[in-house]
Amino acid sequence: CNVADVLACKPSELAFYPIPKLMIRRVGDHEAYSALRASELGDGTLELREVPEAVRYAELFMSSNLMEVMCKSIEDNNKIGIYDGCKNAMRMALERAEQM
Fold this sequence. Notes:
With 100 residues, this protein is mostly helical. Helix content is 52%, strand content 6%. A two-stranded parallel sheet has the order 1-2.
């Protein structure tokens, strides 16, 4: 079993995983939208482009209720199906395959 409290990653496809995320510097400009979306959903930070910004957020995770707030957002988002993209894509593909 793998366990993590917070995922530190560049804003990429990982931005859509249901885990609190500390978004570090992006590689491509297209990744900026993933960090923005995670922040809008409440389960991740905006992109942190400099080390001092990331360190400050790491301190916030340990000294405030930021992780609790993000976890609550994940629970709420899950209830309305925000993280169901892959499941829905598989369901649609299987339905289409059955029709053929």
